[in-house]
Structures are given as structure tokens and as C-alpha cells.
Amino acid sequence: MTDISDTTGAGAASAGPLPSGPRTRSADGRGAPRPGAPFNTPLLWLTLCQGLFLTNNVVFMAINGLVGLALAPQGWLATLPLTAYVLGGALSTGLVARHQQRHGRKRAFQMGLVVAMLSAAICAAAALIGSFWLLVAATVLAGYYNANAALYRFAAAELVGPAGRERAISWVLAGGILGGVIGPQLAQATRDALAVPFAGAYAALVVVALLSLACLARIPFPALPPAPSGAAGRLPAGTARRPAFIVAIAASALGYGVMNLLMAATPIAMQVCSHPFSAVAWVLEWHVLGMYVPSFFTGPLIRRIGVLPVLVAGVLLNAACIALALHGVDLMHFTAALLVLGIGWNFLYIGGTTLYTESYPASHRVRAQALMDRWVLGTMTLTSFSSGALVTTGGWQAMNLGALAPLALLAAMLVWLARSPRQGESAAA
What we know:
Helix 1 crosses helix 2 (80-129), helix 9 (243-272) runs parallel beside helix 14 and helix 12 packs antiparallel against helix 16 (404-419). By secondary structure, the protein is mainly α. The protein is built from 16 helices and two strands. Strands 1-2 form a two-stranded antiparallel sheet. The protein has helices at residues 41-71, 80-129, 132-149, 152-158, 165-174, 176-189, 199-216, 237-240, 243-272, 277-292, 295-305, 307-327, 331-357, 365-393, 396-402, 404-419; strands at residues 24-25, 31-32. Helix content is 72%, strand content 1%.
């Protein structure tokens, strides 16, 4: 297991051998970025792709529950379109991993964006004709894009050298600020653009995907190492038993699960509390800013104090969110709770991802990354669906109290990680 107090030590070998020389050849035959640079132009383009991906996700967050509530045969099914989006992502992780390994990063990411355009167009059609189940099917299809673009953060680490890995992951995730600002405003501006509320917002996501394709065309991704075949292609048993490997997945999955549980129910809870949609857009905007603005500082913070303290801070911030949510249902309470929730998610997700990149052999990176995202998206599927049922049956406060259970589990796992023996070998050994 790698030393959790120093994310730049021996575990950095797990990122695999880096090309030598000032320029290398990428998978698409173009010059790859200089591996020693902590930040470069391809990373900037990938950051913009992440921002456009989050624009798509924020629009889905803002409107899927409300469109679902309007079309669903039963109120407790309101968040099923959002659930279907993350379920589609969970079901697509294996397929995405195969496409990434077979076609390379760029071609696979382009395939994801084509699916994004197709699914957004079907969502718009479903809203226009009032078909709840067509909407659900379209969001399941969109899950392929969700699983595909979730790998942007891992691709970011491959665009820089080991010394810049934490910062590269943070910078790319910071692109979510673009989604936090544009997403709610786009949903609000296009709400009545077509005959049916929010159909125009789905149609606007086709344009968002086209813009992302234009940005992606500028990025020369380094070639992925060949994956071992047959039994050798499986993750080594020792890797899956490492405390760092297990806790990294748990931090990312449970952190995302708690965030998604509360965030997915917020538009419905605010509507029940008679807040207008403009207020919902305001709260989601601050939530997404809380998720991604700290990314400018999380990477350097991990390098300075270590990944474990950052993960602990993420758990404490999630607990603070619940305390704020239980205190009241005014706009101020929703805004403050979702802002703190976003910051807590940021610490857990970036901390978990950074820890994870050190815990598996370089030759197994695509398989390992797909495994993490399968757990993340599977947890999100569960929380997306249960959030609608919990908030419409048990209420906002009961749902927040229930979120304490996974946080307690994660806190116990962090104690286990802190007490586990620290071995000097790298994950690639």
C-alpha cells in the first residue's frame, strides 16, 4: 500500500512509465504534451470539456426531477429519469472501458459525445409528446456519455507528469465551475423555448455536446498501454485488498452517493416548500460552485497535508451540510446546505481519485478506473431513486437524517486506513 501521508512518493510509479523527450507521439499520431509540465494547453481544453459535461449534468439535475414529476404516473417515480441517467452510466462502465482500450481516449470520448447529442434529442422529443418512459429510456442511453466523460479526470493525470497529477485532476474538475454557472442559467433561459416546459433545455444540450466535440478535437491524448489479456488482464488480488484501493473507492462512491441523495431531492423539496424555480436554479448554481471552485486548491492542499486529512474534512463538511438542512427550509438554509455539501464532495472525490491513482498497476488502469466508476455510478443509482421516494414520503428532514449512516461508515473506513500498516512498495510493483 502506498503511504497515505505523501501522495507523491513511491506510489507515483503506478501512473506507468512516461515518455521521454520534450514531445511524444499520441494515440492519434499528433504530438503529445510535454509530460513534465504541471499544466499545458491540452489540459486547458480538457478542462473546458469537463465544464461542458457538467453543464449537461447540471441541466439534468435541475429539470429531470421536475419533468419526471410532471409526467410520472406516480409521484415517487419523479426522480426515475435522473436515476436512469446514473444507472445507464453504471451499466456502461464495462463497455466504456473496452472502447477506451480499443479505440483510445480521443475516439472513445468522441463516441460519448455523439451519444450525448442523440439522447438529448430523444429527451426533448419525450418531453414534447409527454412520454415518461421514453424520457427514462433516453436518460439510460445518456448514461454512456456520463460514464465516458467521468474518465476525463483520469485522462488529465496522463497529460502531465507525476509531480502534477493532483493538480491536473483538480484543474480538470474545476472545469465544473463552467457547468455551475451556465447550467442553471441555460435551464432557466430555455425553459419555455419550445411548446412544452424544459423541452428546449434538452434541445440546447445538443449544442453543448457539439461545442465539447470542438474542444476535444484539440487534445492529443497519449497512447494507453496495452492491457494484459486473459487471466492476466484481471486486477491482481493483492491490489483489490489494499486498504488504499478499498477506501479510495468508498470515499468516491459514498461521497458521491450522499451528495446525489440530497442534491437530487432538493428541487422537489424546494417546490414542496413553495420556492420558485428561479430559487432552485440559484441553489443549484451555488451547489455546483461549491463542488468545483475548491478544485483550484484541493490538489495543492493534498500535496501539502496529505490525502487522509482532506478526506476527513470531506466527511465533516457533509455532516455540517446535514446540520444546516435540519435547521430550516428557507432559501438561506437550502443554499448554505448545498454549498457546504458541494465542498465536502470535492474533498472526497478528488481525495479518493488521487489516492486511487496510486493503488493499481499502470497496465490495468482502464479496468481499474472502470471499476471505481461502476461503484460510484451504482451508488448514485441507488441514491437517485431512493431520494425521490424518501423526500415524497418521509420528507426532507428524514432523508437528511438517513444520510448520516453512510457518512458514519466512511468515517470508520478512514480510521481503518489511518491505522493500517504503511508499506513502501508502489502499486505497480
